[in-house]
What we know:
Elements: E1 5-8, H1 13-29, E2 33-38, H2 48-71, E3 77-82, H3 86-97, E4 101-105, H4 111-117, H5 120-127, E5 132-135
Parallel strand pairs: 1-2, 1-4, 2-3, 4-5
Helix pairs in contact: 3-5
Amino acid sequence: MSAGIVVGYDGSDYAKEAVRVAVEVGKAYDEKIVIAFGYELNPVAGELHDYHAALKELATKRLTEATSLAADAGAEIEAVIVQKAPAAGLVALADERDARVIVVGTRGESPIKGALLGSTPHKLLHLSDRPVLVVPLPHR
């Protein structure tokens, strides 16, 4: 049995739209929403302790924001910080929780640009063995 919907969140408008859609899917299937912020520590980044503290503070801030966005919809929400590169972290979390689907927003980059620059949605499509829902911003 599935244990929820995992949604990646970085604070962007694209991620906010992904949370909105994840809540819709979660309500349709009566699933918990697990909102995740993933980051990987880079030991080349200077003072590792300060860098880690800053990333953890940013992750906490973003997840608080995302939780408040999703909480208004009345869904069950959990916020998780994943200390791995975003795509790998989302896949690991989804596997750990046996999630129904992974949801992420997309900036609408071309497949070639995504492959060359390594976008999270592009990586997820190749790393995940479960469904990945890539959500674009709606056209206004």
